[in-house]
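Module 6 notes. Inverse folding takes a fixed backbone as the condition and produces residue identities as the prediction. Think of it as a translation problem where the source language is geometry and the target language is the twenty amino acids. Below is one complete input and output pair. Work through it position by position during the lab.
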């Protein structure tokens, strides 16, 4: 758990340092919205592939689950830079900006959960994968409930 917090803290620090440059990379709010929605689509696709295995709709293949979990973990660090000032809109509720501390806490919680999922996937223990998948999915749902328009 300490390693996870260290990794997340390092990622958050790197993102904070580059935040000004990251926000500047988007020509306008529409480009930021397009970026974060694209990242979320990729996360959803690979998370869904793991979900199919967890639900028994697809056969378990350790390598496939492992690769998908790695992609989800890596991609989970990306969308947050596209939620800076002046990037309001899209499917995000205004609360992502007006209650930014809660939004950031939800993003951090999700990142920790997908790190756990990735660790479980790398171990190959399907029961651990199922448990971690459920926890990660709950963080996604919680954030969507609070910060995504229906």
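Target side of the pair, the amino acids:
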């Amino acid at each position: 758990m300490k390693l996870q917090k260290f990794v997340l803290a390092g990622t958050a620090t790197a993102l904070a340092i580059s935040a000004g440059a990251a926000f500047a990379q988007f020509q306008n709010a529409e480009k930021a919205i397009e970026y974060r929605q694209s990242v979320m689509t990729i996360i959803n696709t690979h998370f869904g592939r793991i979900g199919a295995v967890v639900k028994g709709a697809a056969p378990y293949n350790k390598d496939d689950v492992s690769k998908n979990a790695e992609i989800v973990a890596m991609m989970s660090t990306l969308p947050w830079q596209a939620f800076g000032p002046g990037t309001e809109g899209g499917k995000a509720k205004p609360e992502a900006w007006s209650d930014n501390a809660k939004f950031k806490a939800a993003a951090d919680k999700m990142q920790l959960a997908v790190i756990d999922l990735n660790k479980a996937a790398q171990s190959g223990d399907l029961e651990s994968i199922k448990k971690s998948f459920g926890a990660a999915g709950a963080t996604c749902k919680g954030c969507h409930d609070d910060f995504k328009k229906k």
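Reference fact for the lab report: The chain is about 75% helix and 0% strand.
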